[in-house]
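Limitations
The structure tokens in this dataset are predictions for the assembled complex, not deposited experimental models. Users should treat interface geometry with appropriate caution, especially where small molecules or nucleic acid strands are included. An illustrative entry is reproduced here so readers can see what is and is not provided.
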Amino acid sequence: MPGHPRRHNRICFAALLVMMPLPYAHAEDEPSCLDNVVEAGIDWEFIAYAEKAEIMQGSLNPGNLIAELPEQKELLEVRPDIRFECAPFTFALSPRLQASRQKVEDFLHPDPEADSDDDAFVNAALVRVDIGTMWSLEASRQALLWGPSLFFSPSNPFSRVNGRNTPYEELKGKDFAIVRAFFGSSSVLSFYDNFAEGEAEDPISDFEHTYALTFEYTDFAWTATGLYSQSESEQAFGGFGQYTLNDYIVLFTDLAVSKVDEDWLADTFPAAVQSGLIDMDRDWHAGITLGGSYSFTEGSNVSAEYYYNENGLTDVQADALLTTGQRVVDQLESGVFTQDFASDTNVLGQVVALRQAALRQHYVAMQYNKNDIADRLDVVLRWTYGAADGGSLAVADFNTTVGENGRVFLTLLGTFGDDEAEFRQFYDYRATLGASLTF
Amino acid sequence: MPWATSDLSLLRTLLLLLTLGLGSVEVLADSPDAAAILSSSDKARGGGLPGIQWQVNVETVETGGGKDLTQVMVKSNGDDNMMEFQAPVKARGRKVLMRGNNMWFSSPTVSKPVPISPRQRLTGQASYGDIAATNYVKDYSAEMAGNEVVDSVPCYVLNLTAANKSVTYDKVKYWVAQDTGLGIKAEFYTISGKHIKTARFKYDNRIESGDKSIPFVSEMQIVDALASNTVTTLVYSAIEVRSLSARDFRLN
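Predicted assembly:
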């Protein structure tokens, strides 16, 4: 074993060192950053997977024209993660090289050829400087997730979903400037400025500059964070926290009350607003997640979470949306199109895009996970129940090591319930089989 | 002048009191404060320092001859412990953060840190509690339980009882060398009194504490009390005493 932390591979250091500034290096008699290397290394991951899905073409995704989900996808990706820390500076870079092929079948392309694509991009990067023990300043590209909730984070203005149904895919990074002030060992004040969309492009609406101010306090058995966030379209107050009730139970919450700018809504989602499927008469909407997790003696965990989403559709609104979608389905099937076809399709697309995280108001989610079964298998079983319509979505993720450097994974997703249920609108099932090598 | 009987009685009484008094002083000297012994021994295992960072190589040799190697980078400051797994490859990038009774687990394969319960401290042959810095003087109430010789070293024997529910083990029997003040053996018990592990310690490292150079733990060997052929050895290296701030105990 090496005597110094994280010196796995030094091969690519030269490249990084050429790119990075060398603080203090100009002053001959002062120590260079390179004299104080705390951590340095590069990890390589080569990952490949193939995905097969049965796409539903129901009321909310007629002819697969709304979501345009692939029924078949293969991807090969190289993921180097470079990290270099020489106090008080930290640098990290995660470039990605990707080759993919996918087949998207929709009403307009019933038997398409597979599309191939390759891409090179930087999904994550970090430049941070620590000033004394109190301050840190950073510029970064990252998928910024926070809070203890497993499925939904209503308080997070940057990403409300946690991306756990596709653990093999990396969430796309956005660009941030972050200032943190540390008060003793218990309190942190942070200011986040999401100034560019980075790799997380939104196909529907334009990028919005988003700010958040958080104050985090950690006590012996609990931790809590309060926050305020603001973008051009929305302002929100919220927070998240967790409490260790005893040796085996942790309780947690994540909540926010938010107000969306009505002019922005009307400009960005005009068809949805005119259809009456987006409320314009309520000022503040609440989103609340309440949950807990229980640890078994042998090391496994079970977690449960309830999510109330006041922004979601009521039963009446959901019926109206499904009726709109059914009109589109009927026209696609009959081949006879009315003048409402385009506007109905627009309404569907805008409502689904606006409420990507959760279309309805009540959800319950449960998760069981156990790592290192027989010293090599990690299992995650997840079930999300749409309490408003009785539909559910189940995910099983199996991950096993092969030799010293290999990993094979299988992720299965299935939906259950009535064909009108939200979860039954997009996927019937999806199976992903993949492997990765890490060095 | 001859001593009067009453004077002799008085003298005998005084001598007796003096003898008892001196004896008492000697008894006190032989019964040092258990908390002071514990505090002294903690320093050599990472407790009571302004901040410490080290690397632990954990090797488990199982009954069937199988071998498991894990490498962990540990940062510790009071109730805060950050553990970052560096090897094997399958575990690289996994992190466990303990802040008091709050615990989180993060891994490159999960999108954000997951809160876990303190029960997870006990997972595995070498628990997170074993890998983290020791702060017995804060976590346990100590009682002297006599003197014994371990490996030819005269030791104080301390019975430790968990001061709160957040600690890794409910009870610990701890042998501390009388000459060096270093903990050299420990037996760990559940609340029901079930013996689960025995550990032995070596101190071949040295660190700077204040203006002194003091011994520091170099090896902890753990024998599973239920499967005595399973031996886990923790080897400590790259030790660095430095001030750590709240910034060092964050997962994102």
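Some entries come with short summary sentences. For this one: The radius of gyration of chain B is 23 Å.
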